[in-house]
């Protein structure tokens, strides 16, 4: 099977996810700086979540650029990823509405952990279809970056109930780790 339809569908779903998130940004009711400052938690939550969704979109693009074909299992692994990504607008809104309180921070961390796990599953499923000696398999290797991200999400979520600021800092750190599209794939493709 070709990868074009899966890519197009993923692009559409991610566009809808971003649209849903931006709809939670409401204009303040008054025209002064204090009204705008009250929206800071909502804006910061949106920025972080937008960044995460953009990171997934960029890295998904790189992942599929290194592939020649997909299978039914890949299609389901991709849907699994999209399911978890589709929950990010909800957890973002709850986090923002409750000003980074412990339980919403914990759930937000879980909503970041789940797509990271789903992305790792998608990558391994794609490697299974492409083959162990494929460009993708050579580029991703053992998946150290993915494993480190999952561990950091777990660390961040563990601190959410006691120190939400530590959790949020951890979530930002993981985003920074993935900010540049996966160079492993770029390096392997340019060889």
TrEMBL record:
Name of the featured protein: Putative membrane protein
A Pfam family matched in the record: TMEM175
One Gene Ontology term of the molecular function aspect: potassium channel activity
Any one GO CC term of the record: membrane
Transmembrane recorded as keyword: yes
Family under the similarity heading: Belongs to the TMEM175 family.
UniProt keyword terms in alphabetical order: Ion channel, Ion transport, Membrane, Potassium, Potassium channel, Potassium transport, Transmembrane, Transmembrane helix, Transport
Source domain of life: Bacteria
